[in-house]
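Example 224, ligand 2'-deoxycytidine-5'-monophosphate.
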Amino acid sequence: MQVAIDGPASAGKSTVAKIIAQKLSFIYIDTGAMYRACTLIARDTHLDYGDEPGILQALDSNEITFRTVAGQQDIFIGSKNVSQEIRLPEISANVSQVSALAGVRQKMVNLQRKMAGQVSVVMDGRDIGTTVLPHAEVKIFLVASAHSRAKRRFLDLQQRGIKSDKTVEQIEQDIAERDYKDSHREVSPLKKAADAVEIDTTNMTISQVVEEILAEIKKSQKKL
Ligand code: DC
């Protein structure tokens, strides 16, 4: 079974995807973390964020993997756990540019399909239902107002202990800019798949969203 969860930044995708994967014993794959890792590789290799050939070469010698650490899915570049570093504001500010590179996307999509392989997965991102797993049995498109997403991101950064001088309003502006870039890029833009179920999480609790998605999964299991 493949469950695809797409939507704009901070709509709650990863929070609900993790809970659903745990409840159903599916593998959770955070594809945003993979593009963030690519951005970190570019930074640490001192490459321009638009240098596609350079970044592709750097990706060849820096393997991106997920490993379970203390019950959590962490992301590694080679043997280094970069789960915290990929959330730094500097990476958030440049990930849209790196993730718009066609070659980088092709590489990541191949890797994501391989990871999904023969296991049941909950995968979240921007193009999962449209491009990565177009035959996913369940497709969800999560949306929420930009203001509520900014508030969530602000709390998330605080909880992760990541220092940032930004106010909620500044984060809201950053999110709006990233949404615009993610939705208007040429390759695989953020877009709701025709057969996806849209859920507006603005006024919903996490457990309400989880319940709604679980109900969709049940519905599709009945059909199988
Ligand atoms: O979900 P996130 O904020 O961690 O994602 C980081 C960036 O990666 C986001 O700006 C868009 C990009 N992304 C993408 O282009 N395709 C995906 N499947 C997932 C994320």
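Summary: The chain has one domain: 2-216.
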